[in-house]
From TrEMBL:
Pfam families: DUF1801 (PF08818). Residues 19-112 form the YdhG-like domain. It comes from Candidatus Kerfeldbacteria bacterium RIFCSPLOWO2_01_FULL_48_11. It comes from the Bacteria. This is YdhG-like domain-containing protein. InterPro entries: YdhG-like (IPR014922).
């Protein structure tokens, strides 16, 4: 089976229980970062704006959101991300759970700020 070439194709090929969650994550990222570039990288949906913003993917029993490592995310949002955090910059949402839209918007906006600061330093 060929790998998906677009985010829409990725979502359509994902397990049924993941599809609504993936659509919600996609819409959240697009709302928080309307100028972000959308694509597929490492076989999963990817968003960038002045640098990497986020990836997300469906797995056997959950959806993962990969926020690119950012020091300010850990500092400012640690109490909010702890219930979902499974790795350095990975949040997991079991199938059927609510996607924390407000939290994801904060993470995306924080990543945009970090990327803009980095871009200014170059």
């Amino acid at each position: 089976m060929r790998k998906p070439l677009t985010v829409s194709e990725y979502i359509a090929k994902a397990p049924q229980p993941a599809q609504a969650m993936l659509k919600k994550i996609r819409a959240t990222i697009r709302a928080a970062a309307p100028k972000a570039k959308e694509g597929i990288s490492y076989g999963m949906p990817y968003y960038s704006y002045k640098g990497r913003l986020a990836y997300f993917a469906a797995f056997k029993d959950h959806v993962s959101y990969f926020a690119m490592p950012g020091h300010s995310i850990k500092k400012t949002l640690s109490s909010q991300i702890n219930p979902y955090q499974t790795g350095k910059s990975t949040l997991q949402f079991p199938f059927g759970s609510a996607v924390p839209v407000a939290l994801l918007k904060k993470i995306v906006k924080t990543r945009i700020k970090e990327n803009l600061i980095k871009a200014e330093k170059k």
